[in-house]
Amino acid sequence: MNQANPQTPTSPAATAPTRSELASRLYEQGRLAEAEPLLRGLVAANPRDARSMQLLGLIAWKQGRQKEAVALLQQAAALAPDNPAVLSNLGAILYSLGSMAPAERALRRALELQPKFADALCNLGNVLRSKGDIAGAFAVSARAAEAAPDMAAAHNNLGIAHFMHGRMAEAVKCYRRALEIDPEFPEVHNNLGNALAELEQDDEAIEALQKAVKLNPGFAPAQSNLGKLLIRKERLTEARAHLMKALSLDPDFAGAYHNLGVLYAVEGAFAESEACCQKAIALDGGLYMAYAGIARSRKMTADDTPMIERLERMVEEKKSMPVDERSHLYFALGKAYDDLGSHAQAFARYRKGNDLERDRRERFNRAGLETQMTRLIERFTPEFFQRYRHAGNDSDQPILIVGMMRSGTSLVEQILASHPQAYGAGELIYWAHEDRRLRPELKEPDVADVADVATRYLEHLRGFSPDARRITDKMPHNFLHLGLVRLAFPNARIIHTRRNPVDTCLSIYFQNFPAPHPYAYDLHDMVEFYRLYRRIMRHWQSVIPADRMIEVDYEDMVADQEGQTRRLLEFCGLPWDDACLSFQDNKRIVRTASSWQVRQPMYRSSVARWKRYETFIGPLAALLEEE
What we know:
Strands 2-3-1-4-5 form a five-stranded parallel β-sheet, sandwiched between helices. 62% of the residues lie in helices and 4% in strands.
């Protein structure tokens, strides 16, 4: 909340301050216990002293006496109905108590009296945002930042409005501007961390959130957000400590319970995960992510019908809720109906969720991706690799698992990570970053740069496990970066996972990924992306030796688990181990959307799943004919 403080008049240095001036100075200095008796005396002497009554109300609010604060501010507003500062403070306190309609009335009246009153604009932005009027909140926040360019809270609110519109880069700019004005603003550090996390700039995000909790260790939301991000970085011990700290500060913090549920899910403790989500729902029945967490952690049954009906009511009744919340609810409903076999209802909900995500995110740039792939094909020829044959590192420790998302990359990694001589490092963003830095498809990289990329990657891998003979990196979209991978590690193994193209695309369409994937929200875009993926993989197959890259079909793995597992281990140079057949018992951390699936025994229900949705697949049918 943004609180407007009344301006205290300055007195000549040689003149002793009046009682009113002294009370104001004490309030400004935070000496509330000294200011309060003076103010009470002033009000007793003059019951129509609106200014002293306003300060008493603000003191009561700061000390947690909310009802008294409202009563005092209402009296002050009645005595001074044309004082915008009094009305703004009244609106701010009513907002903090959840009284949105009277808060909005007070704030709009303040702005009628003083249209460029930045405090009132900030407070009104908070109210509109809480009502779900994101467009209105953005307009008001922009006015506040324009009216008070040196007011940190105004830029913070504008950043929040950008964030809720999905414009993360713009949000970061606003938060950084706020911190230029006030570097010690914990709420802004927290908000900056959340926005950076959305942009997958995790290290900077952690730094911002750590700054927030350092400035205010009692800031429960920042503790919870830091815990959530540390889960993503697989720093689970630290994550648990911050989440438990958040709950010790606020035992009724529904969001912290949900994040703790995410932690349990990553660890494979799905019963505990659901218990945390249920606790979160009991505390906040509108916490959409908790419902989605339950839907992801197990298969829904007819016993879950009351929860499904509640979700339907929630998504229909709260049409003004932020877009990302609505889309999460639609994806959760799609998952629930799919589990129940209600395929028409499932597809309808998935389509609504994807339409919302598509409209709020950057659109798929097919031409740009096609140009990138053409350059890759033209650059990475057998002759090019021959010229760089001595540039890379001879290590055969890395195993790259690539392919379309939802094609079986998590399954393959889970199988290999169950081997005592292998370690599954999950989805690493290393190669995308290095490819953007070097742009080898545009210019020939320096030999020293290639060697440096290889050395740092090995150091990165060994940070996960210093002793593992093989370490997997299962970032699916590394298929875009195999040219640089091949330069840096000519002996690295590359596993290309494949699955029926329509099953693959539908599984992507049915999953709301944490990170944006512009092609994933529209079936036509997905067809174009799949065709480009298939084109680049055909090129890599023509220039990377067969003893360094193999293809593993998901359907073959399901049909012949042991035979395909033996083939995988032989390719990776690993001896047979029975543990690889019981991959579902592996207690390793799994952060991807497949965290529940990879802890189940091999099942056949995902093979030819598309046939249940045959009447809805539209443009995806062309991929079957092309295959």
